[in-house]
Amino acid sequence: LHLAGFVRLALGEGVEKVEGPDFASEVASMMGGN
């Protein structure tokens, strides 16, 4: 699920529209390395 969301974000699909702001924040945390 995380990988799929990351790919969508990379493609510019708009994760916020697909999963929601919570998911977007989760991906941001992964990228931040927190």
Please state the structural category.
Answer: mainly alpha
- The proportion of residues in beta strands is under 5%
Overall morphology = globular
**What share of residues is helical?**
over 70%
The helix tally amounts to: 3
Low-confidence stretches: none
* Distance, first to last CA: 19 Å
Main sheet summary:
none
Total beta-strand segments: 0
Averaged pLDDT: 66
Based on CA atoms alone, the radius of gyration comes out at: 9 Å
> What is the string of helix and strand elements?
HHH
In short, what is this structure?
It is built from three helices and no strands. It has about 35 residues and is an all-alpha fold.
Structure description:
With 34 residues, this protein is mainly alpha-helical. It has helices at residues 2-11, 15-18, 21-32. The model has no long low-confidence stretch (mean pLDDT 66).
Sequence-ordered SSE layout with sheet pairings:
Blueprint lengths: L1 H10 L3 H4 L2 H12 L2
Describe this protein with a few key phrases.
single chain, 76% helix, mainly alpha, 3 helices, 34 residues
